[in-house]
Structure formats: structure tokens, C-alpha cells
Write a structure and sequence with these properties.
With 439 residues, the protein is α/β, with parallel strands linked by helices. It folds into 3 domains: 2-141, NusB-like (N-utilizing Substance Protein B Homolog, Chain A), CATH 1.10.940; 178-231, 2-Layer Sandwich (Alpha-Beta Plaits), CATH 3.30.70.1170; 236-437, Rossmann fold (3-Layer(aba) Sandwich), CATH 3.40.50.150. It has 18 helices and 11 strands.
Amino acid sequence: MQANKELIPLWRQLQATAQVIQAVREGVSGSAAVEDVAPELRPGVQSLAFHAWRNLGRAEALRRQLAKRPPPPEVDALLCVALALAWQDEGAPYDAFTLVNQSVEAAKHHPGMRAQANFVNACLRRFLREREALVDGTDADQVARWNHPLWWIQRLKKDHPGNWQVLLQAANRQAPMVLRVNALQTTVTDYLAELAASGIQARPAGPYGIELAKAVPVSLLPGFGTGRVSVQDAAAQMAAPLLLSGLEPQKTQRVLDACAAPGGKTGHLLELGVAHVTALDVDPGRCERIRQNLARLGLCAEVVAADAARPDTWWDGKAFDAILLDAPCTASGIVRRHPDVRWLRRETDIAQLAALQRKLLQALWPLLAPGGRLLYCTCSLFLAEGQQQVQTFLAHNTDATLLPSPGHLIPLTSGKQDTVTDNPGDHDGFFYALLQKQP
């Protein structure tokens, strides 16, 4: 199999990577765009696309210097991929001359770009000759420097004035692979020993988490197929324990996971001993993912395909003891895992998603039993989807009390975090607010 991969010419991968970058520019998610790539190209293209997205701001600034008038979209995408991969030697997947040569070949072999191959060649040859001066000429451009849209940079400056630079730097690092042990089957200590016996280096990351020194295929993880561990970021692993903190899980009879797909938090709730979980998602296809993940864990929940914002279509009228609302959001906290998100989102998305989050909170709050808890969380760094959302909710719901909560977990990899009291280690950006309904 490896031999076949080595026979795939780089120009084919660059062609496909450019198509993926262009698809995201047109509003398609990166994961969906990569899924459309031919299977034999997919692993290499995903790696190149991730690298390109993490350097796309710089690449676009360089392209503007090389060609004042934008070329056709597919040519622009190919040029930007080449420039993103080649603008600096550190971390580059191939040397700059190879990338330039193969990018020109990609244009020559593409029916829609063949007529532009000489233009691509001229731009990239000039880049090779003048690389240092061209890069220096883009240093003053904030989008080029930070590789995020300008509105995103400005929003982080406003929301996190003391940490915005570190947040932007962290977003361009590769996220670690983190596992969650199944507490019904093993412990962190025991599973670390199993990993060591398999030659996999790792360290603890929170009460149920393990961070691998290097990502590995899940097929190499001892007992993955039988549910001994799941892949889940350290910040996401805080949801189930936080919702259940101070409660007896076995006596917490009815718990709702309101936006449950793909089922990671549902599984964690069941692993911690919750008797009955209703896992809800609006997409039937994503509900099947929940069932598959629970089957691997050897666990069972009531999985319902329905809109959480419309309880009249699915709720049986019996109040829930606890509700987990991991609400749809901009995903601004998980950009290091999904580097396409920054280029896919628009500034107007924040207000639209905040309105949806508000609608979900208002719809689900009446379903909570007196004395019950609702954990509101988003994988967002933006205050409008976290702190400000909860402040608005508390102002309009006088029967709600904010219990001690982490608030905004921000993915700093070093230094003290003034907003986080229980930092599980290197983690994604998240927001948590634990709300209790007055008895």
C-alpha cells in the first residue's frame, strides 16, 4: 500500500489540494471537501491542505504582490497553495524548488488551468528569485502575519486583550491527540501502562485523559475497538464531570444531551454511571454516528433525531434532571484541529449563531426539573457565544443561578491562565457555564 502512495506524483496532490482550498472559499467545509478527494489522494491532500490553511493569509498577501489582478479562481487557489507551502523553509513539506516545479506541472495537467501554466510558472519563478524581499514586504500585513481574517484578529483583540497574540499563535500549532479512558473498563494509570507496553509514549491529561506524544492510528490503540478509550480533547472531556459534579450519577435518572453528535459526551456521561441519557441531534445521519460510537463503547442511549429548539416535536413532558447543551457555534476554539474554519466563517456568523444558542437555551430551560442543572458550552473563544450569552440568559431568567464554572477555557500552551481555575493541560478553546434551576 505504501508503495502505491509513493507512486502518486506530487502535482496530482497539489491539484487536489487547490480544489479543496477553492471549495472552502466557496463555503464548503474542509472535511467535506477533503472527503470528495479520491481515496488514494486523501491522506496526502489533507496534510497539505492543513498546512496551506495555516499559512493562507501569508500566501494571499504574496500572491497579491506577484499578480496585482486576481487570476481565475482555480489558478489563484493553486498559486496560494504553492506559496503557503513554500514561503518559509521551516516546517515545509517539500523544498521550495520542488513545490514550484510540481505546481507548474499541476497547472499543465489541468484542463481548466493549462492556458495559465506559463503565468503560474512566471509568478512562482519570480517568487523563488525574490522570496526574501517578497516575504519582508508582507510582514506589515496583519492577515499575513497571523494567518487569520482581519475581523477574527480584531474580535480576539477585543475579547481577549491580554492573550490575543498567544491565541492566534496557538491556533496555528498542531493539536495533540488526546484520549479519554472508559472509566467502566480501565483507569488512566492502567491504560498508560498498556500504551507503554505497546511502545506508545503518553502522559496524563486530566482525570480521564491521556495525551499522546505523537498521534497514531486508532487501530494501534490497545482495546480501541472494544471501547477502552475514545479520542476526545481535554477541554471537551470536562463536560460530563462538570454536569455531574456533586450529583450521584446513578440517581440522575434522566439526562438530555441536546446536540449530541457524534456522541463523545453522551458516551462519557454513560461511562460515569448515568442511568438514562437521551441523545438528540437534528441530523438523522449524525444520529447514526452516535449509535455507532456507543456500540463500540458497549453502551446504550435513547437516540432521537429531532430539533432541540422545538421540544413540542419530541419531548414526552417528563422533566430532565440534567441537560447538556453543547450548542452550535463558530468553532473558533478548535481552529488548530480544523484550520479551515477561520477561512470558512464570516463575521456575521457570530450574531446568527449567538441567536441560535439563545433560542436553544430558552427552549430547553423549561424542560429542566426544579433543582436541576443545565451545562451550556461552546467550542468558541468569542465572548458573544460564551460569557455574554450567559449574562443575557441570567438577566432574563431569574430562576437560574450560575454555579462555579470554568468560563472561557483558552488554549494557551504556556503561562498562567487567569480565566481558568482547573486547566486540564494543552486543550482546545471552550466555554462552560453550569446553570441551576431554583428548587
